[in-house]
Amino acid sequence: MLAVGGGYMEVIAMLLQASANPNAGISGVTPLMVAAASGQVEVARMLINCGAAATGACAARGRTALHRAAERSHADVARLLIQAGASVDIGDFEETTALMLAAAEGHPDVLKVLLCAGASVSLANSAGESALSFCVRNKHEACLETMLRAGAPVNAANRTTGNTALAEAAKVGSEVLCRRLLQYQANVNSSNARGETPLMLAATGGHDQVARMLLVAGANTAAEDVNGHTAIMHAAGSSVAVVSALLDFGSNPSVVSEVDCNTAATLAALNGRKEVYDLLVRAGAFVPVVEDTGDRVT
């Protein structure tokens, strides 16, 4: 294993000629996995030629040599492993594939190798994350472009959170990613498990430029989440710029939640956002009267 990690070809050749087992490992980690993780393509080739299995998984996390090559951006090693029979869609113990790891770490060259070998763009791991969602959450623009061109389902939702790629892009405030996803017909009014739309997520994060982009694309300002909160109510606690954008696009500042009786104005006040509160009042927002008991009167 030490010889493999150091890339000592002559030592490795001598050991293999002396009948060293190329599949013998430590705690499930084989020499081929070490070569893959360190990008030692010629070492990997030698091991494979001497019988190393490209399909074996590490006992600790269920990851193969291909997983390791993909995560570390070793495209040449990944290509060699695939040629040697490595399965491109096998998942680890969390159902994470090599494609997902390459997307998460931002390695477009590895993505292309895997996609050319037939890797599925539609799989998700046990947490509901897909390769596309990893690209977006980590703001890997080149990887996103590669996945979109490969036909990744742009409106697929995380089975745990319900977020689509556009929702994740809005949440992290990336104008570039949102624009590209919208160009690929992402649903601007999708809602997640909490009823939150991309516009609400952008509003919560104070991402005014993303919010304006979504509004231009037709985002519904009247949509409500599970708490009866609209986008302007989400923005009230975070950003005067987003509130201003929502008002420009006709958002109703006087909606009263049927769940918790809050309004945009009360949420602004609760969060200490005086400038937002003042803007809402100037826009004619309904401000509930508060009795001495502290109960809201709507």
The count of DSSP E runs of length 2 or more, i.e. the number of strands, is 2
Instruction: Provide the spatial order of strands within the biggest beta sheet.
Output: 1-2
Approximately how much beta-strand content do the residues carry? under 5%
Order of helix and strand elements from N to C terminus = HHHHHHHHHHHHHHHHHHEE
Biggest sheet statistics = 2 strands, antiparallel
- Give the overall form: elongated
Radius of gyration (Å): 26 Å
The fold-level CATH name of the largest domain is Serine Threonine Protein Phosphatase 5, Tetratricopeptide repeat
CATH class annotation of the largest domain: Mainly Alpha
Tell me the helix content. 40-55%
Query: Which stretches are poorly predicted, pLDDT < 50 over at least 5 residues?
Result: 292-298
Distance between the termini: 72 Å
Average pLDDT: 91
Number of helical elements:
18
The CATH architecture of the largest domain can be named as Alpha Horseshoe
Structural class comes to mainly alpha
For the record, what is the CATH homologous superfamily label of the largest domain? Ankyrin repeat-containing domain
Instruction: Please indicate the count of domains.
Output: 3
Task: Describe the model.
This protein is mainly alpha-helical and 298 residues long. The protein contains 18 helices and two strands. Residues 292-298 have low confidence and may be disordered. It is 49% helix and 1% strand. A hairpin with a 5-residue loop joins strand 1 (289-290) and strand 2. Helix 3 packs antiparallel against helix 4 and helix 7 packs antiparallel against helix 8.
